[in-house]
What we know:
The protein is mainly alpha-helical.
Amino acid sequence: xxxxxxxxxxxxxxxxxxxxxxxxxxxxxxxxxxxxxxxxxxxxxxxxxxxxxxxxxxxxxxxxxxxxxxxxxxxxxxxxxxxxxxxxxxxxxxxxxxxxxxxxxxxxxxxxxxxxxxxxxxxxxxxxxxxxxxxxxxxxxxxxxxxxxxxxxxxxxxxxxxxxxxxxxxxxxxxxxxxxxxxxxx
Length: 186
C-alpha cells in the first residue's frame, strides 16, 4: 500500500480512491480568513474550524481508502475495534453508540453492514430481554488485525506530524471535546 502524503492536506482521494492532488496556487482557507477579517473581524476561529473540517475530510478519505480492500469504512473499523476491546467481544448497541459517540441509527446501520459481511453477529442480550448484543466474529477479528497493521503503517494519515506534534494536537482537541461534554475530566 502506498504511503500517505508526507504533509497533511497535500492530496485527496476521490470517491473511487484515486489520488488527485489539488495543487491550488493559494491556500483557500487562508484567503477566506483574510477576506473574513476585512469584512467581519477576527478570523482565527473561522480559519481553525474550517481547517479542522477540511482535515477531517482528508483523513477520512485516506483512511477509508486504506480500509477499502477489507470491505471496511472507518466507521465500521471503529465498531470492530470497540468490540475487539470488550472483554466478551460483544456489546449492547446502545453502549456502542455512546462509546463511538454516534446516533443509535448510525450504530444500527454499521452493525447491519458488518453482519452482512460476516464480521459481526447479533444475539440476545442476556441482561436485557429486549436488547441485542453485537458480537465480533473471527472474520471480524481477522479484519481488525490486518486493517490495523495497514493503518499503523500509514500512521493513520498523520505521518506528516511528529509524535510530539500529534500529542499536542490530541491535547488541544481534547479540550474542545471536554468542553462539549464528551467526558468528565479526571
